[in-house]
Amino acid sequence: MIRTVRPIEVGPVRIEDPVILAPMSGVTDMPFRRLVKRAGAGLVVSEMIASEAMIRETRQSILMAKNAPEEFPMSVQLAGCEPRVMAEAAKLNEDRGAAIIDINMGCPVKKVVNGEAGSALMRDLDHARRILEAVVGAVSLPVTLKMRTGWDHANRNAPELARIAEDVGIRMLTVHGRTRCQLYNGHADWKFVARVKEAVRLPVIVNGDIDCFEAVERALEESGADGVMIGRGCYGRPWFPAQVMHYLRTGERLPDPPLATQLALVLEHYGMMLDHYGPAQGSRIARKHLAWYTKGLPGSADYRARIMRIEDHRAVPDEVRRFYEPLLERRAA
Ligand SMILES: Cc1cc2nc3c(=O)[nH]c(=O)nc-3n(C[C@H](O)[C@H](O)[C@H](O)COP(=O)(O)O)c2cc1C
Predict the structure, then answer these.
(1) 24 Cα–ligand 1 center, Å
(2) pLDDT for 1
(3) In ligand 1, which atom is closest to the CA atom of 174?
(4) Could you tell me which CATH class the domain 259-332 is placed in?
């Protein structure tokens, strides 16, 4: 029995189908978000942008904050630990056309938590409140919050942070069902997310390990959440959120696009990466996507090794075709 989900109102932004692409550094750049959104997704979120870098308007942060009209509504995620700086960074993104500002209190990476940002903020809820208040006060856009269940198992304070967030005017919460100390180990605890859902009236999105239709169903069932956020399950599958949306609406499990459609999409994605980053950087960053697209296809390990070695970006599309075309012929025969 499929658990149906309803549209969510995030302030003035209506998310028709609450199936959301997770923010992922190095992955959810503008080219990838555009592909996901075009296939179908309720909302896409930028990579985490360091607020300090944002207010200095570094080249990298500007590129991360860049958005395209067809992604709308899109959300920009900010990380940081200084309320004033985060507020200023949020304002800059409002001016640059973001529809939603998301605040990162979930990132477990040492470089981030040692700066007392990301999930480190779950250890100091007074400070977390000051940040949330400052950002909510700085923009007229809706502000959302992404968190983990807590710092470690003994301190799973996500429900408490959720109540603070609701109190200061946050409009939606996403909970990755792991603690900071779990990093990416173990399994996301979707049942714990139910405690956050019970603590507030805000829309709550469940996240972590949702990579197939069964996981979508179980995560919604166990958490009682209003929607799902999908990260690694979209690697090489920008169409996955669209399949999930369709599944939640109809119960039907659409197959992956035909291989010929996938090949065209891979080549288009590669071209978008070169445009976005410039050829040298773009072709380097594209490698992981090219590899993910072929996971599970025959001969993909050798292909991935070849792709990683190509230095001349102009040689890549031919290598991609050389891999896919024999598979297409075999399938047609
Ligand atoms: C490569 C990578 C980069 C990530 N970057 C971010 C980020 O910038 N901001 C954030 O809030 N979470 C980030 N995350 C966490 C994801 O948004 C998500 O919470 C986590 O991967 C669990 O969901 P999943 O099992 O669907 O991937 C990242 C995860 C991965 C794997």
Answers:
(1) 5
(2) 59
(3) 19
(4) mainly alpha
